[in-house]
Each structure stands twice: as C-alpha cells, then as structure tokens.
Amino acid sequence: MKKLLILGAGTAGTMMANHLKKQLDLKEWSITIVDQYKTHYYQPGFLFVPFGIYKEKDVVKKKKDFIPSQVDMIMSEIKIIEPDKNRVKLSNGNTIDYDILIIATGSKIVPEEIEGMVDGGWRKNIFDFYTLEGAKALNNYFRKWKGGNIVINIAEMPIKCPVAPLEFCFLTDWWLTAKNGLRKKTNITYVTPLAGAFTKRNCSLVLRDILEEKKIDMIVDFNISGVDAVNNKIISYDKREVEYDLLITIPTHMGDSVIERSGLGDTLNFVPTNKHTLQSDSYENIFVIGDATNLPVSKAGSVAHFEAGVLTKNINRYINGQEPLPEFDGHANCFIESGFGKGILIDFNYEIEPVEGKFPIPHIGPFSLLKESSINHWGKMIFRAAYWNMLLKAVPVPFITPQMKESGKIIPENVRPAK
Questions:
Q1: Rounded mean pLDDT of 123-138?
Q2: Band of the pLDDT at 265, cuts 50, 70, 90?
Q3: CB 3.0–4.6 Å: which of 126, 134, 222, 271 could bond 247 by disulfide?
Q4: DSSP letter string over 216-282?
Q5: Which phi and psi (to 5°) does residue 50 adopt?
Q6: Which of 309, 310, 305, 360 minimizes the C-alpha distance to 332?
Q7: What does the domain layout of the chain look like in residue ranges?
Q8: Are 296 and 275 in contact (CB under 8 A)?
Q9: How far apart are CA 96 and CA 154, in angstroms?
C-alpha cells in the first residue's frame, strides 16, 4: 500500500485529511497525519477574547474530533524530515516512510526574536493576542485599564491574518467608547513596518480613512529594533521611539522549527513553494499548504481553504502521472471587524486587489465588498460556525470556489499589476 503523510493537524492539515479521504482510493493509499498537540484552536477567535466577546470554550476543540476515522492520527513531535529518503523521524522514536508528503506545519509567533520584548514587560504591560494565553492575559489586563497610551505594533511581515492588527485597533476604539467611557482618556497608535495601513494599496486607503475617522494615529515604515521595557517604548532601526503604557505586539512569525532542522526552509522557516501548484520547489513528491508556505499571500484560514481545493486536485494528478495544474491564484478573503457592529469584506488574489462589489453571488451579495456594513459584521460572527462545521470537514461552501471570481466586482485598471 502506498503512503500519504500529512505533517500538522491544524487548519490546513485537517482540511487536507478530510478532502483526501474522499478522493483517494483507500484500498491503495493509507493516509497518516502527525501532530504533537491535542487541541485545535479557532485562531480568528483570539481577536475577540481580550474584549470578552469570546471565551476559551468558543475557540477550543479536540483535534481528533475533526480527523476522519479513515485517517491514522499519530500524536508526536516531528524530529526531522528526510526528503532524500522519503521518510520522517518522530520524537517518539518511530520513523514513517511516505510516497507523498504534505507539509502543513503552520507558523507561530517568536517574540524572543525582538530584543527586549520578553525582558521585564512580557505579559505585564506587553501582550500578544495571537495566542490564547496572550489573549486571555490581555482580557484580564483590560479590566484594570484607566487610560493612557495603547500602541499596536506589527514587528515584521509576514504574519497570520494581516488585517487582525487593524481589527484590534477598531475593536479597542469600540470597547473603550461603548463599554468603559475611557476612549477620551486613551490614545491609540497603530505602528506598522508597511508604507500604509495594509499590504494592498486600494484597501489600505479605505482602512487609513477608518483609522483617521476613529482618531487612531498611524506610524508607518517603522521597523522595530527592540523594546525598552524599563522606559516603556519601542525603538526602530532608524532610532525613532514610540512610548506606550500598554503595548500590543504582533511579533515576528516563523515556520515550525522542524523545517529548519530539515533544511527545507528560508530564513523564517517557511518552505519555498510553487505559488500556483503548491508543490515544493525542491521535491516533486512534497506539497505545502497554509502558513507553512513562503507564498506571497495572506497566512489565513480562507487561503488554506482555497489552497486545499487546488492541492487535492494536484495530488490526484501527481498520483496519475500528470503534471500539477497552476490553478491556485492567490485567492484570499476576509471579514474585517471595524467596531460598533460593522465590518468590511475583502476578496482578492495575486493579480487583483480588493475592490468594491458583491459577494458571494455577483451583483446580489448579500455581502458588500470593501464597504462597512452590519451584515459584514454578522458574516464575521457566523464564520466561526462555518469553520467548525464546513471548512475543517471539507464540506463545499455554496457559491465560493478556490479561484477568485471577477464577476460582481468593480475592477478599475489601477488595481491590476502592470503587465
């Protein structure tokens, strides 16, 4: 029997396990998935935990509940991948051979990469919300907030869900205004290494306007060199300083350390991957999905969902001796919570930036693209149920395809890249 091995049972790995158990001939292929952690987190929900909107129970489930019975699940740390020998060694002493390998080992925050970040102020007046522990600690801290300077800082790109720091700004403004009456006593500053509010110019301008409307200051082109936790300030490489009373950090993100140990990654441990086929640049029987890739696309669950449809087809083609099809177009979409019961939806790919229009049914919606609306907020809130019950289980989502649809979008020429 031939062997397909999936490394990582997070969002991307779980989706692939569910897709492939439906697509492969299980009399000819065995499917194994390896992960060292038992808990599956709904990571988009971490954003809401500091504000008391979600509790831990809303974002946590058991990984095994989403792995189909036809897939063998092994709980172990991965020691090393040996691609030249088509095998993976586990920390429990076992070795697994494979004919096809899918790397879905994700990414994680590495705050210790920033000088001074974890020295003195960590989880005292410096917090992240990209982990459940950080989000819960911040929720406790917010209960005692009396006013001052809140700084939300992105250390460097890429990060998981690039809009989440902006959402945090917007929700902080809402929470201080609606819940505590402390907004007038609090300055909120968004500090980013980007030249604008977001990675895509068209969307960046819209989000910049919302920041200005909410009186949230923005500092751009700020590449953090370190944190002075004694004097409560962050410092850039060009010696600019921003003072804080509360620092919300989005630290450096890196791929799993097994990628470094295996010599398969770039300097941030992301695996060089063909951006259209999702095949490893170095090994034809290795495919990569989700946050583990080095693709120039958002590290987000929606991207993994769209990638999974393309990757399933390409694995079938590889098994049948056919070349993988270059069908992944960088499709990403995301609800952006903008506070006060409103949200924005963006839908874009490698070629076309976020634009106005209707989604998912062209010209009908019900969601409006690149505009604030109440229904977009509710789309954000019901996504959690869709995540647990559809995306992870590889249940088709009506009207939504792996490739981005241009129909229903108002696409001016200036949002297309120059040919």
A1: 98
A2: very high
A3: 126
A4: -EEE-S--EEEEETTTTEEEETT--EEE-SEEEEE--EEE-HHHHHTT-S-TTSPBPB-TTT-BBSS
A5: -60, -25
A6: 305
A7: 2-106+256-319, 110-252, 332-415
A8: yes
A9: 38
Name the helix (H) or strand (E) containing 307. helix 301-319
pLDDT for the residue 417? 59
Residue 335 in contact with residue 384, Cβ under 8 Å? no
- Which overall architecture, per CATH, does domain 2-106+256-319 show? 3-Layer(bba) Sandwich (3.50)
How much is the pLDDT for 111? 98
CATH fold match for the domains 2-106+256-319 and 110-252 = yes
Residue 263 burial by CB count (10 A; 0-12/13-18/19+): exposed, middle or buried? exposed
Contacts of 90 (CB under 8 A, 6+ apart): 34, 74, 76, 77, 78, 79, 96
Q: Please determine, looking at this structure, whether the domain spanning 110-252 carries the CATH number 3.50.50.60.
A: yes
Tokens representing 305 are 């969902």
Q: Give tens-digit pLDDT for 266-320.
A: 999 999 999 999 999 999 999 999 999 999 999 999 999 999 999 999 999 999 9
Q: Quote the pLDDT of residue 419.
A: 45
User: What are the structure tokens assigned to 220, written together?
Assistant: 């751009």
